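My current task is to audit a protein record that another person submitted. What it holds is a sequence and that sequence's fold in token form. Thanks in advance; the entry in question is below.
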Amino acid sequence: MKKQLFKLLVKLNNAVLPSLYKKDPMKLTTMQKAILGYRYWALTNSLN
């Protein structure tokens, strides 16, 4: 159940949140770093 919830969350994130994979992490703003961290957290939990 938890894994399915995170998979749904990742799909929602991909549809709504901006993609930051081509940007340099050192040049991101604080908000962009938070979004990147949140997306990473959701992705790692969906894979476990």
